[in-house]
Amino acid sequence: MRALRLHKPYEFHIHDEPIPQPQPGWAQIQIKSVGVCASDVHWYKDGRIGNTVMSDPIILGHEASGVITALGEGVDSLKVGDRVAIEPAKPCMRCEFCLSGHPNVCPGAPFFGTPPTDGCFCDYIVWPAELAIKIPDSVSFDAAAMIEPLAVGDYAVELSQIVPGDTVAIFGAGAIGLSTLQAAKLAGASKIIISDPIQARREMALKIGATEAIEPSEVRNAVNATTSARGIDIAFECSGSEEAVCECCEIARILGKVMILGIPDGDTYPFAASASRRKQLSAIFVRRSNLNTERCIEYVAEGKMDVKPYASHHFTLEQTKEAMELAITRGDGLIRAIIAVNE
């Protein structure tokens, strides 16, 4: 099979590797669509995220969908031919965090495309059967691949404990920001201001429910006008911008919340100290999603959330480097580049 490995920053090579075979309890999945996430871009550019550094060639890609092609012994929840969305993390389900309902923070949980665990930029993978979740025929493979970022946004809103009537500001209108927007709207937010420097993304945000979609430099004025200078109830940072974290602190109201989803280029987040302290803000960091995938599949199937617009650009596996370069520049109105591994 084809396996695309990152050997060092900016350098991919396609390898011919054996098709992996499923062990008991696992499934073999032919990969269909894979989204290019900001974390993939960090690996591609820097060979690291924070203090995690790649040392060996690795297969990236974790926003994935596919078809079941073989099953290991003892699997009766799936059958060959099933169309699936794939949970990218494999929590142990034994530690104190998993047992308390927080498998998303399971220490050391293998995660696709994070050393040493290979991801989905390849023809086939094997993965525990319970982490391959069936999707209805009405959900496309592209949409199924976008369930992962949708679940992250949905979990962020759940974690924020938003209540109907809350005002929300979101920095970044990529797939994570748009997912947060849709989840906040579904949760009953009264006003949702989203900012992004890319016009096409702002236009998309308006189509799927934003009250205002503006340039980042306009956020403070917009929040003051919307809230009569009281400040926003919950600010979501979804862009990975250091400046946006500080801006969240400035626009949040007294006793407001700052939800941090974006991955910064470096390994630190700067906060506006005076604003954060004087307003006694709560800053909450969002780690992936947490048991939200099946619910998000239902949302998409029922038309409550729409991820079709996320898949704005398509590339073959051999064109992944081009996809990464476009993701770096966020050019041409990019929301998510999709690697169509197998048509």
Sum up the overall morphology in one term: globular
- The CATH class designation of the largest domain is Alpha Beta
Q: Look at the helices and sheets and give the structural class.
A: alpha/beta
Order of helices and strands: EEEHEEEEHEEHHEHEHEHEHEHEHEHE
**Percent of residues in beta strands:** 25-35%
Q: Compute the gyration radius: what is it? A: 20 Å
For the biggest sheet, the summary is: 7 strands, mixed
Second CATH tier, the architecture of the largest domain: Alpha-Beta Complex
Q: CATH homologous superfamily name of the largest domain?
A: Medium-chain alcohol dehydrogenases, catalytic domain
Question: What is the straight-line distance between the termini?
Answer: 15 Å
Q: Which quaternary structure do these chains form?
A: single chain
Low-confidence stretches: none
Give the number of DSSP strands: 17
What does this molecule look like?
The structure is a single chain. By secondary structure, the chain is an alpha/beta fold. It contains 11 helices and 17 strands. The chain has helices at residues 38-46, 96-99, 141-145, 147-160, 175-187, 199-207, 219-227, 242-251, 273-278, 293-301, 320-329, and strands at 2-8, 11-16, 26-35, 48-49, 52-53, 63-71, 83-86, 124-128, 132-134, 167-171, 191-195, 212-214, 232-237, 252-260, 282-285, 311-315, 336-340. The strands form 4 sheets. Strands 3, 6, 7, 8, 9, 16 and 17 form a 7-stranded mixed sheet that branches. The longest helix has 14 residues, at 147-160. The two termini are 15 Å apart.
